[in-house]
Amino acid sequence: MVIQIVVTIGVLLFILPNIYTSYKKKSLTRFGAVIWIFFWIVGLVIIWFPELIGLIGKLMGVERSIDALVYISIVYLLYVSLRQKIRLNEVNKEITLLNRKIALKNKDKE
Amino acid sequence: MKTYIILPAYCEEKIIKKVIKDIQKEGYNNIIVVDDGSDDKTYEQALSTGVITLQHPINRGKGAATQTGIDVAKLLNADIIVTMDSDGQHNPKDIKKLIKPIIDKKADVVIGSRMINNKDMPKSRIIMNKIANIITYIFFGIMVTDSQSGFRAYNKKVYNSVYTYLDRYEFESEMLGQIKNANLKIKEVPIKVIYTDYSKSKYKHMPEFPAQGLSNGVKMVIRLIENSLFK
To answer: Which of A76, B78, B100, B168 has its Cα between 20 and 30 A from that of A22?
Structure first.
C-alpha cells in the first residue's frame, strides 16, 4: 500500500505538472501531452488494480499476466526507438542543409 | 562549354594545392573546393590558390560536400560538372576523356571506371567494388562497373533533376539511382587511379586490410537500409 501511495503522490505532484509545464512551454504538443497523461493514468490504475493485468493477459492469450506487461513494454519501446530514429534522420538532413546554407552564405559575404 | 571541377575535401592540407595546380595545368580553371569541416589548413591552402573555396562549418561527409559543390556550380550556370577526389588519386588528364561524351551529346553522365582496366588494382579492392556494385543494384536497380567512383562528369540535365541527401560515401549509389529514375544516359570510361604514397597512407585499409573495407561496406549497407526505411 505504501509504495502505491508514494508512486501516486509522485505522479500527481511531479510528473503530471511537469507534462503540463512542458506543454505550456511548447516542448510537447497537445497530442503528446495527452498521450503522456494517459500513459501515467493507466500506470496508476494498474498500480491500484493489479488484477487488471491478468485480464489483459487473458485477452492477449498469455499465461502469466506479467508476460503481457513485458510484451506491451517491448512494443512500446520499439515504437519509441523507431520514432527517435525517424526524428534523428530528419535532424541529420536538416543539419546538412544548414551546414550548406552557412557555407554558401559565408561565400556570398566574401 | 563552361566546365566546373568540384573537389570535396577533408583534411587534405598536404596535397590540395598540388591537386588544384595539376587540374589547372590541364586547362581547367573553374574549380570549386568544398572543405568539409577539416580540422587542418585545407581551407586556407585551397583559398590561397585563388579558386572558389567554401567551407562547411562541421564535417558532414563526402556526399554532403559534393552536393554543396554541385549547388555552387548550378548557381554559376555550369554546362558540365566534374567531381573528383581531392587526395590526388584521380588523374586530371582523364577529365578530357570524361567530358567528351557529354560534349558529343552521347551521354548525360560519365563515370570514370577503375574497373574496366583493373589490372593494377589490388584483388581485395576489386572484390569490394563488385560487392558495392551489387549493393547499388539491390537498392537502386542500376548496375555499373564502378558504382563508387567519385570521378564523374554530369551535364545540366543531371544537376537539374538530381539532388542527393545521403551524406557519406553511399551518396554515389543514391545519385546513380536518381539518374536511373530520371532516364538519363550513362556512359563509363576507363580511368587509372594513381596510388601515391599519400593516398596509400590515407587509405591504407583498402588494399592491405580488406577487413576494414568489409566493415565500411557493412556500414554502407546499414545506412542504405536506414535510408530506404526513413525517407
So the answer is: A76
